[in-house]
């Protein structure tokens, strides 16, 4: 069964993505996807990765990375950005 891929604006997709984040069992309060880019067939989500004062990964960084990876895996097969220039 083939699922159709829907075009969507970045703003609309970020609303969906941030709602998904809040429902994830590993969600950390304050984690938010601030931007999304289309890289081929993959949606890449970005936001605060909670680096320390020296710009190095903190204890939260791995969790946040995995949450953004979850978004890419979950949403890339459903959506394509319609406002890609």
Please tell me about this protein's structure.
The structure is a single chain. The longest helix has 15 residues, at 61-75. The protein is α+β, with helices and mostly antiparallel strands. The protein has a single domain (6-81), classed as 2-Layer Sandwich (GMP Synthetase, Chain A, domain 3). It has helices at residues 10-23, 61-75, and strands spanning 6-8, 33-39, 42-47, 79-81. The strands form two sheets. The protein has a two-stranded parallel ribbon. Strands 2-3 form a two-stranded antiparallel ribbon. Strand 2 (33-39) and strand 3 (42-47) form a beta hairpin. It starts with 5 loop residues before the first strand and ends with a strand.
Oligomer: single chain
CATH class: Alpha Beta
Mean pLDDT across every amino acid position? 93
CATH structural architecture: 2-Layer Sandwich
| Rg for CA atoms | 13 Å
| CATH fourth-tier homologous superfamily | Protein of unknown function (DUF2498)
Lay out the secondary structure.
Blueprint: E1 6-8, H1 10-23, E2 33-39, E3 42-47, H2 61-75, E4 79-81
Parallel strand pairs: 1-4
Antiparallel strand pairs: 2-3
List keywords for this structure.
single chain, 85 residues, alpha+beta, GMP Synthetase, Chain A, domain 3, two-stranded parallel sheet, two-stranded antiparallel ribbon
